[in-house]
Amino acid sequence: MKKLLVIFSCFALVVGCGTGAGSDDSVNPGVTPGAGTKTETKTASGNPSYDPDRGQGKFNNDNVKVGETLDAAMASSGDKIYAVKCGSCHKLSDEKLVGPGWKDVTKRHTAAWIMNFITNTDEMLDKDPKAQAQLEICLVRMPNQNLSDQEARDLYEFMRKNDGVK
């Protein structure tokens, strides 16, 4: 009797999860398919296309402006953020602590990628191959630090200072 109950429960779970309910836009009357949403192209596997240079998030080359020289005020603010939210897991050298070291991080990744990662950590760890590779090495998911856009920009400027930008 227990086997029959287990088999029936598994069958109900598979059928309930596999029906695709909610995936048809006609289920939501009054909503125009694609209205107000960004159209994403799909890869051959059916996954949305992904830009590995900017990652997943709101930052891109148009809304992240980085000067040739260091903004000392932003770097100083970023240093304070690092001390409170980042320093317990990341060293400023290339040595791994809990997370990877920060040496040359701004040379390995674009500003948009870094800022998207530190403000949209979970999505990046779920989708970005470079972030997933680091996760395999570190074995600990970075927690979302709830950084504001300005804090992310200040932290990026601090990373640039750490990488030798004057």
The gist of it:
The chain is mainly alpha-helical. Helix content is 45%, strand content 0%. Helix 4 packs across helix 5 and helix 4 (111-119) packs across helix 7.
Please identify, by name, the CATH architecture of the domain at 49-61 and 68-166: Orthogonal Bundle
Task: Give the helices and strands as they follow along the chain.
Answer: HHHHHHH
Distance between the termini: 74 Å
Radius of gyration: 21 Å
The CATH homologous superfamily of the domain at 49-61 and 68-166 is called Cytochrome c-like domain
Helix-strand makeup class: mainly alpha
> What's the overall geometry?
globular
Q: Main β-sheet, in a few words? A: none
Strand-residue proportion: under 5%
Q: What is the tally of helical segments?
A: 7
Low-confidence stretches: 8-43
Oligomer: single chain
Averaged pLDDT: 80
Q: Tell me the CATH topology of the domain at 49-61 and 68-166.
A: Cytochrome Bc1 Complex, Chain D, domain 2
Helix content: 40-55%
Let me know the number of strands.
0
What is the CATH C level class of the domain at 49-61 and 68-166, in words? Answer: Mainly Alpha
